[in-house]
Amino acid sequence: MWTKHYRVMRSELAKCEKARSELEKMHPPHTVQPEQDGQLQDYIQKSDSLYEWRLLILTEYWMIEADRLGVPLPDRDDRTFWGRVEFDSDPREPRYLTDAGIRIVRADIREERRQRREPVTFWSSIMIGVVGALTGLASVIPNWWAD
Questions:
Q1: Average pLDDT, the chain
Q2: Distances from the Cα of 25 to the Cα of 20, 21, 142, 147, angstroms
Q3: Residue ranges per domain, the chain?
Q4: Is the pTM of this model over 0.90?
């Protein structure tokens, strides 16, 4: 569960959260002056950029997990599941999973993990039952022969 890409994702999210908290400290006051100076627009643009950065980090993690488990991703042309970074922010215009897309991928990954766990759970419970029965039988046999 604690794979290398999970630790990298957590580290990147921590960096993103630190940048967000630093941006919150620079929040312009609620007056007309920052709005006229463009400070408010700059703050909103930086906030949107941090939000997209966070979604790009999560998208990379969930894409790796889905690939590792063989879970298909939603259709990339569906705008409800995929967003795109604007050209002004990044000329490559990378795609990222929206909140709805992340929910779908997480649910599919959870289902795949559950299905992979079921046979192990089934056979381990049978084996524990057999070992318990053999242990009980082994504890009764010496007393039975002694009588």
A1: 86
A2: 9, 7, 76, 83
A3: 4-146
A4: no
